[in-house]
Amino acid sequence: PSSPSESPTQTFHPALVPNPIPTPALLGSAAGGAHYSGAKMHHRHSDIARASFSSGGSPVELEGRRKKVMDDVRELFECRPTIEIFQRSWSKDAEFEDPLSHCKGLDEVVPQVRNVFPKIFSKSTTVSNRVMQSHYDPNRIVFAQTQEYTFKLIGLKKTIKSMVVVDLDDEERIVKLSDLWNGESPPINWGTYRLRRLNARVTPWLVKVPK
């Protein structure tokens, strides 16, 4: 897939598919934890997150390229994404996942992160942010954060604590960013995963990003 290079334009279509926009109730439900009856969990990232949450160690200081990647990731969480961030710090085949979606490739990631989030939230504030791990084998940054989101129109605020796992390639570009709410990996049972993938696939159809 080609990298986005221009500002997106909105295209509205008939409601043939479920609306992927997360509601306050949906956010509250998902933030309550990824575990629920019948959900199978992928434990690799959640094990990392739990270990980091409980470590209580000193924060890790990043330098050089990794510091720049981290700065770009923070801009995304503050709802200030730009095309330059994706061109600079993301692989074109990168993945993004949280409990609401699992995007594969920038054609899915960019509409979800750059266009949908700022339309839902009038403000996103990082209450706290601490880098817990920075390794080169595997090539990964792990940080804990508390984020406060303010919904547009209704003004409702929602605080979400999460552990974010950022996997990098040899050029220090993001190949996968996993936002683990409450330190738990998103559910991957058949039905829920299909809904998360549907969210990722439908969003580019609703919010066009020119090639």
Spatial gap, N to C terminus: 9 Å
For the record, what CATH class applies?
Alpha Beta
Number of domains: 1
Helicity, as a percent range: 25-40%
The Cα radius of gyration reads 16 Å
CATH topology name: Nuclear Transport Factor 2, Chain: A
Poorly predicted runs of 5 or more residues: 7-21, 31-43
Main β-sheet, spatial strand arrangement = 3-2-7-6-5-4
Task: Based on the coordinates given, report the CATH architecture.
Answer: Roll
Give the helix/strand class. alpha+beta
- What oligomeric state do these chains adopt? single chain
Counting DSSP H or I runs of 4 or more residues, the number of helices is 6
DSSP, total strands: 8
Sheet with the most strands?
A: 6 strands, mixed
Question: If you had to describe this structure to a student in words, what would you say it looks like?
Answer:
With 211 residues, this protein is an alpha+beta fold. The protein has a single domain, classed as Nuclear Transport Factor 2, Chain: A, CATH 3.10.450.50. The protein is built from 6 helices and 8 strands. The chain has helices at residues 24-31, 43-55, 64-77, 83-89, 106-120, 190-206; strands at 9-10, 90-98, 101-104, 121-136, 139-151, 157-168, 174-181, 207-208. Strands 3-2-7-6-5-4 form a 6-stranded mixed sheet, sandwiched between helices. A hairpin with a 2-residue loop joins strand 4 and strand 5 (139-151). Helix 5 crosses helix 6. The longest helix is centred in the C-terminal third of the chain and has 17 residues, at 190-206. The chain is globular, with a radius of gyration of 16 Å. The model is unreliable at 7-21 and 31-43 (pLDDT under 50). Residues 1-20 are annotated as: Disordered.
